[in-house]
Amino acid sequence: MARVTEYLAERGGLSVSTLRSNLFMLSGDDAVWHLMRVAGGLDSLVVGEGLILSQVRQCHIHSIEEDGCGGKVLSRLLNTAVAAGRRVRCETAISRGSVSISSAAVELSEVLSWPDLNLPFSEARLAVVGAGKMTRLLITHLESHGLERIAIVNRSLERPAELAEQFPDVDIEIKLMDDLWDVVGRSDIVFMATSSTDYVIDELLLEENGLAGGRPLMLVDISVPRNVGEDCKNIPNVAAYNVDDLKAVVAKNTAMRQREMIEAEILLREDAEQFAGWCESLSAIPTINRLQERADFYRQEELKKCTRKLAQNDALSDSEMEAVERLSRGIVNKLLHGPMSHLRKTESVEGKQAAVKELNSMFRLEESAADNGRARNGRGAANGRRR
Question: Secondary structure of 3-58 in the HEC alphabet?
Answer without folding.
Answer: HHHHHHHHHHCCCHHHHHCCCCCCCHHHHHHHHHHHHCCCCCCCCCCCHHHHHHHH
